Amino acid sequence: MQITISEDTTMYIYLKDRSKHKYVKNKSRSDVICYLLYDAADNMLGIRIINKYDDEPLNDIQLPKLGKVEFPMHNAQITETEQEILIVFNQDTPIVKETAHTCVLDVCKSGIIGVEPMPYVYIGGKEMMKPFIIRDEPVPVHHVFSPPVNCTCGNNSFTDIEREDSIFGFQNGWKCAECGHVYLLM
User: For position 121, what pLDDT does the model report?
Assistant: First the structure.
């Protein structure tokens, strides 16, 4: 298993090597209900994918088969039933919290290539994911001429901040209360 994280709000869980498998567009699933799992220290511990679409009423679906995971599993555990797929990054750590989301399941002929929780998710601590993270991009800094109305995540709630920069000195700005993006006044 491999994980990429971008801006601490989006992640992708690779179960198969994309360079060896061709994505099958009409077999992939979007808007599948999932639950992000956390431990007592608020570290993301895994994901539980259930056999329901996010629509009214909730409709049952047939989840694609997982197939063989092509990456080292370390201390992770994956279980698959007709009703759900459970991916836990550390099987020895208890799950204490779940948050509901939707996800995209990318599929190839050999099973699920990867899982992407949607849209912007709270990743939390990364301690349990460390053995699997292959890329972790930091929170971006946007330089603006006026206060932002909405963040790129769609949120419109900001906190005032002040930062010191080696080139610009002290800069005033705003931090998105939802995703943490920083907007500095130029």
Answer: 78
The overall longest dimension of the chain from CA atoms, in Å, is: 58
Rounded Cα distance between 26 and 105, Å, is: 11
State pLDDT tens for residues 56-76. Answer: 777 788 999 999 998 989 999
pTM of the model: 0.74
CB-based contact 39:135 (threshold 8 Å): no
Long-range contacts of 101-104 (CB under 8 A, 24+ apart): 101/33, 101/34, 101/35, 101/36, 102/30, 102/31, 102/32, 102/33, 102/34, 102/54, 103/32, 103/33, 103/34, 103/47, 103/49, 104/28, 104/29, 104/30, 104/32
